[in-house]
Design brief:
Blueprint lengths: L14 H12 L4 E9 L5 E11 L4 E8 L1 H16 L5 E3 L5 E4 L11 H6 L16
Antiparallel strand pairs: 1-2, 2-3, 4-5
């Protein structure tokens, strides 16, 4: 690996994003949980999760990466399931807004999925109010 520049190993679709992150790193920002794809010696790509810090004194970047390839596969599978499920699936924010809805969401026939994402759900009684503790 030391014989080649780092961008040789980065997936072509991730090079620009990785360069931007590296520029930010050299300006003093720590990198926490940056993800990109790296070329493996067997020719496949692996997803890596990075943490890095720039040491101004030495001029070196110190970085560590974890192979998160399996996690990315799980995330993609969850997305596919979310999109094709016949049951209603939603993701909601803390301010009572739908962040994401699947195609099965039709609370009222005239409401589009776009409308539902913008509308607060709690006042409509679509979901119960949060429970209060003792």
């Amino acid at each position: 690996m030391a014989a080649k520049p780092w961008d040789y190993f980065v997936h072509p679709d991730d090079i620009e994003r990785t360069r931007r992150e590296t520029t930010a790193l050299y300006s003093g920002q720590d990198v926490i949980n940056f993800e990109n794809r790296y070329r493996h010696k067997d020719g496949t790509c692996r997803w890596l999760g990075w943490r890095a810090k720039f040491d101004r004194e030495s001029g070196h970047i110190y970085a560590g990466a974890v192979d998160i390839t399996g996690r990315e596969d799980v995330e993609e599978e969850k997305e596919r399931f979310f999109d094709i499920a016949s049951d209603i699936l939603v993701t909601a924010s803390q301010d009572s807004r739908f962040v994401k809805v699947n195609s099965a969401v039709t609370p009222r026939p005239i409401h589009s999925a776009r409308f539902v994402r913008r509308a607060p759900w709690a006042p409509h009684g679509w979901f119960p109010r949060p429970m209060r503790g003792p």
